[in-house]
Amino acid sequence: MDEQVGPDGTALYVARDEGERGSEAPFFAVFEHPDRTARWGYVCGNCGSFDTAMDTMGRIVCARCPNMRKPTEWDAAHE
């Protein structure tokens, strides 16, 4: 795992072997500890930003570039 400095200056650990497919590049899982016990969120593989968000349907979006993952769940009410 790669150790990187997070937005608040603390050490975060990026698991390059735990990626979610994005439209531009993968989103990699980020953990608070190298033992992977506490998930922190995701880092964008396209621009390297920690400024990502996931909604209730599993969509992941980067706030700094156009990278996004399509929802993993779909609500039939939206059709």
Structure commentary:
The protein is mostly beta strands and 79 residues long. Helices cover 0% and strands 42% of the residues. A four-stranded antiparallel sheet has the order 1-2-3-4, with no helix packed on it. Strand 3 and strand 4 form a beta hairpin.
Mean pLDDT value? 93
Quick one: how many beta strands? 7
Rg for CA atoms? 13 Å
Classify the beta-strand content into a percent band.
35-45%
Oligomerization status of the protein chains: single chain
Specify the helix fraction band: under 10%
Features:
79 residues; mainly beta; 4-stranded antiparallel sheet; 3-stranded antiparallel sheet
In short:
The protein is an all-beta fold and 79 residues long. It contains no helices and 7 strands.
Write the layout of secondary structure elements.
Layout: E1 2-5, E2 11-20, E3 27-31, E4 39-44, E5 52-54, E6 60-62, E7 68-69
Antiparallel strand pairs: 1-2, 2-3, 3-4, 5-6, 6-7
